[in-house]
Structures
1.
Amino acid sequence: MPRHWLLKTEPGCFSIDDLAAAPGQTTGWDGVRNFQARNFLREMVLGDLALFYHSVTNPGAVGIVSVVREAYPDATARDPQSDHYDPRATAENPLWFMVDVRLAERFAAPVPLSAMRREPGLAGMELLRKGSRLSIMPVGPEEFALVCRLGREASQKA
């Protein structure tokens, strides 16, 4: 049975539209520079599903991705030209990891953060905890199903 996750991205940097336009609607989820989020990446296995979440402006879940390649070293950590460069990362000790994800579904309507906050079934969701800022986090199966149901409905109020 697949585990469920939430992957946050700033839509100005990489949006669901960018993923939809990527070759094979697949991309490497790189640039994670938080150890706890990195550890979650390393727990992901093929077939795990994640909510694709736009953060910053109009935050909300906009679709679902599936993990199509398990954790491997994030090459951007060793690239001095990358915004995600980390001089501590080496070939022997890569430090940072990434997974590949493929677009599985775009929601009919975004599920705004404000709508999630109003849902009693999401009260325990990590995303909604005060001070929770991780870019990658686990999501319970019931929470995942509820967000998906909301996203498949045609109308959502912010």
2.
Amino acid sequence: MDEATLKEVIVLHRGFLDGVPGCKRADLRNASLKGLQAPNAKLHNALLSGADLTGAAFVRGDFSGSDMFGAVMRRANLAGCNFFRADLRGTKFTGARLGGADFREADMRPGEIRNAGMQRTQSVDMSDAVLDKSNFSRANMTESNLEGASLRNSNLSEAELVAVNLSGADLEGANLELARLKNAVMAGTNLKGASLRGADLEGAVLRNVDVSVCDMKGARLDNCRVFLGIRDLKEDLKVKVQRHMKWLATDGKEGEQADFSGADLSGIDFQYADLSVAKFTGANLEKCNLGKSFLTMADFTGANLTGASFWGADMRGVILMNADLASVNMADADLSFVNILSTRGDRRVVRFPSTLTGANLDKAICTNANFSGARLDGVSFETAATDGAIFVTPEADEPESPEEASSDA
């Protein structure tokens, strides 16, 4: 379809809405509108299911109440558009510009898409879309993909965000009050200045998320994996952890890898914290709470970890060489190997095992812990509780050195 034909369809649709005889409702189902420009288009209650608006420009268009089931709007400029109560199930907004758009009460659940006789479930995809100052109040966005999207100062109050992917999304200043974020994935999400008052975060995973800069008063956090302890850290330690979070979330482009070597961190609550690849050589972490934390390839060489809790922690590829692990709780912890890319230029995937060589596990609780492939030279489990623990002989593969491996993590 060309722009002239599209404008004619829009004129007839407007007449239809006004009750003008001879006019008809816009039927653009499965139409190709790629790259077309129709600013301020009035397409309220139009039929656009399956339409392809890739790269199109419908700035300030009115799509309220329209059927846009399964429509494709990749890289489209839809800034300021009105999608109030529109049917947007299974739509694709990847990389679209949607700043200031109105999505109130829109239906953005996964859609059952039929293609070549096959039926599949397709979630709404708004990854990398620009959605700043948009209004999603009471919208149903269940299972939507908002990875890397910008939602600064947007209104998502009372929105259904069940199982939504907000990894790497920018929600600075956003309103998520009373939003339902059950089982949401929010890895590296920016919540600076955001309000999650009364939000339901049951079962959500907030990995590498700094919640000290947002308001979570009254939020439901049952089974939520979130590092709340950051709020109680001393300022210098908090800054170091914040910079490490940023370093992990941006693959090393921003922030800085944390080095706690020789530091006194005794008794600190690091539950659910992501301290992967951090350095703790010679540090004192006596009676620290590291339960359910992410410690992949962290280096605890020679550290004092007596009485610390690693219950359910992700400790794949961790280095605990000559560490004092007396009376630690590692029940249900995963100390198996981690797969990394070789730095030798051949892009080979190698296994990096956990290393406990020379560690002291006197009276440690290791029930149901996974030591598959771990290096346990000189380690005695004689006084440790090991019921249900998994021990598998390491593979012959040579791992990268700790320094090389850290650069890949």
3.
Amino acid sequence: MPEALLWAAAILLAVAAGWAWNSWRHRVSTRPPGTRPDRAAPARPGGRRPAPPRPRGTDRPAAKPRPRDSDRHDVPAPGEIWWADVPYADGTGSKVRPCLVLRADSRGADVLKITSQDKSDRDDHVRIPTRDWDPGAEHDSYLSLTEPIRLDFAAFADHAGRCDADLWRTIRGLRHLPTA
């Protein structure tokens, strides 16, 4: 009898380990490509990672061709959430992060940064539902309501989704933010 219990426990552990592995693999594989920064690079003080290497003589990655009118789904539009290479405020590098497009024109787009860090105690951030555009997210994120950042179209990597309609109405009502 004790030998049967050991086998049952071993089988139960093997099934649980397989379920956990499959759950983790599914969570990682459902993320859009390029949605997470490289975790292999060592973090700088303050949690920042070094900027990816750039080609000599340039301060931005090579520009991708401007989409034709028939490819308009590849162009960021107001109210959309995109993964983009957003520069740090101090100019020491950049980070691929989600951002909300406020307005776009032929030269680029004005965006607000989205962070997964809890900023609920700050007046300059607002909670933004995350699961609609990032299925791998474990909690909601926070949208920075500070000064918008201007990005070239080359900085945009992947379309993530649309902003929650109620939140978008609130953002459009804020006088200090430019919206289309």
4.
Amino acid sequence: MDMLNPTNASSRQNPGQGAHAANQKHGAAEFLTFRLGAEEYGIDILRVQEIRSYEVPTRIANAPSFIKGVVNLRGVIVPVVDLRLKLNCIAAEYNDFTVVIVLNVHGRVVGAVVDSVSDVLALSPEQINAAPEMNTTVDTSFITGIASTGERMLILMDIEALMSSADMGLMDTQLAVQ
């Protein structure tokens, strides 16, 4: 069941005249926001193909625990990653709010399980702070910044780099470098 299809919504507008293109001229970027436990994250809306309700994927033998399995999405076999497990968050129950964000990363379709999707936000550069520097035991390489909007704090992620990382095993390493 398609819940939201940002790609199709923006493609109905004139090429180059979408909201993202207009905001880029003013220095703003659009992010899809979602929740993992108590934290709220943001990813580049241009990587999002669609948002689907959660369905139990077919498990793949010997896959890492964060790879829940695969689903058939209109004839395309899509690996599904639980971002809570990948990011070492406390595991949550799958419920009616749990969704799969279908991403297009380096031409490959990948699903990411999240607790819920919040909204799409346009953030100006002034709203985004640099990613915090941590010691070497904490991997912050996928965090591109922290955004503040009113009372909300968003952790901005480079979802393309996360899904392309070697430990995920989802991408050909040569494709990820391009």
